[in-house]
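dumping the sequnces here before i forget
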Amino acid sequence: MLDLSDRALAVLLLAPAAILLSLIIVYPVLRLLYTSFFSLSLTSGLPAEFVGLENYQLMIEDPVFWETTWNTVLITLITVPGALFVGLGLALLANLPFGMQWPVRLSLLIPWALPLSFAGLIFAWFFHSEYGVVNDVLARFGFPGVIWFNSPNLAFAAICLTIVWKTSSFMALIILAGLQTIPRSLYEAADVDGAGRIRQFFEITLPLLKPAIVVALIFRTITALQTFDIPFMMTGGGPGTSTATLAMYIHQNTVSFLDLGYGSALAVVMFALSMCVTAVYLRIIRTKE
Amino acid sequence: MASVSLRKLEKSYGSLRIVKGIDLTIEDGEFVVFVGPSGCGKSTTLRMVAGLESISGGEVLIGDRVVNKLAPRERDIAMVFQDYALYPHKTVRENMGFSLKVRGVAVKDAESRIGEAAEMLGIAHLLDRKPGQLSGGQRQRVAMGRAIVRRPQVFLFDEPLSNLDAKLRGQVRTEIKRLHQQIGTTIIYVTHDQVEAMTLADRIVILRGGDIEQVGTPDEVYNQPQSVFVGGFVGSPAMNFAKVTVDGDALRFANGDRLPLSGLNRGRDGAMEGRELIVGIRPEHFVTLADPAMTLSARVQVVEPLGSDTLVHFQIGGETLTARMPPEMRPAVGSEMRLGLDPSKVHLFDAKTERTIA
Ligand SMILES: Nc1ncnc2c1ncn2[C@@H]1O[C@H](COP(=O)(O)OP(=O)(O)OP(=O)(O)O)[C@@H](O)[C@H]1O
Ligand SMILES: [Mg+2]
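..and the predicted 3d for all of it:
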């Protein structure tokens, strides 16, 4: 009797959140999935036509899909660990017990607060072949200038560098928050126990940071899979499609070509990719417990 | 094992002097307790011995080695922290064995030392748990175990019992004392609880505002407090104080009662005519059968039966005094009675310096 009313109460209390959640998340996702089964191109002038899995069939045969997906995965594989290491370093630096902590913390906040596309613009100028600081510095050390955005590999490297710069401060902020939850007395105990700084880092800091790091990694990986602004502003995906990402390809199909059916199918794939990654991380957390 | 010497030990934060030149020699194997009110510099002093706090002036010696410049790990000390500071991601075994692992003690040797310490502390069945799965008392024991396996020259304890409930505190206190008797290592122990200090210490160091107020055995600080502060700090309920004036051959109380100086064992030394003094008398040193000359007239205010004895709060002049009376004593509230004093247990302090009079 009590159980039943408890359950009813639970449902009642959860209902508003559940309804809101389904309105803003579940509905759009289902709608996306639904659209991906249609041939719906606003430029063709034809009415929407149910085509089943045809959009997915097209995708498998589309080399640009494979290239942009590969680029996206590569960017994720490079910039996520990159941002983790740089962010960890910055966080450790910002956590040092010096009096002047605010300059470090401020410099952590600035890249984080900057809009992505703005970061893309700034770095596009940094890597500019004639006016950019990067070539200027190279020239001062006697190296020839490089036309960064003409070479697929260099353009890709420049993008990855920019993303690491832009995103490591986010990593650093989360890790810094994690660092500050570790009681100082643990380090004092380790001092007395005889462990040096490096040993303390691996035996205390790193294990206790694991939850913070996993959370930061989930956020960072998902945003990496959705990389758009920075390559869009720096290279527009070029040369050719060598630096285009999946998100840029979705944007091109839906916004430029107005091919909503195919664009939706691509978006479904990206969504699935994000879900897989999240599931993996959640599994990692759970086995940790 | 080793002795520990503090020589003119000082600590300042900027212009703020926290520890003001402490001189103290702790013998090899001695159990010394630092006690004092909050903020008097106990932890700071202990942490300077540990090497966790830099030394602003003076010296710390462990054995005959000046350790001022040595890192904590080079001082061969072990410390039990107030919050225990157990590594939350390591098991009890790993917590206890960490220092041994770091120092490269052979695994087999380490295992036997951990086992031995765990046996001694009754935590052998907990070795594979993490600190999060332990009760407060168990954590406290693990923290002690971690210190014991080290076999250090000196143990440092910073309020190790303050996170335990009263019953457990008493129990673990006894265990710490037994432990000291068993392993005999020098211990410096910090607490703000005078009962802990009295029960544990070979010698008590009473700190006040960064200075030593008095050093002595528990008996000495209890029976011969050098100042009003020590008298009031040691013992529970606290010592009673009353302002008196030397008037002829007697001490005159605010209510006009007179206590003949000749009745006090200490005689008249230092009790010059007209001098303002403070009389200190412990609650347990009031007596029911007394020389009528050695009594005060008091009005009963509150009666607190404790079972083992009865606490009676009296009003004498403007001051409230507490007396520990036999359990069957139940004076009526508001009644006037004569309160007897044990003349050998009356302490006299100068009213200005608050130090005992010579
Ligand atoms: N980093 C610091 N800067 C300035 N003052 C400090 C600092 N650390 C401690 N103090 C001051 O030093 C004094 C002594 O502190 P300490 O921790 O030694 O006190 P304690 O006797 O251990 O007190 P408690 O019983 O509360 O633990 C306190 O008044 C405290 O405010
Ligand atoms: Mg303290």
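The interface with chain B takes residues 183, 185-186, 188-196, 199, 203-204, 207-208 of chain A (CB under 8 Å).
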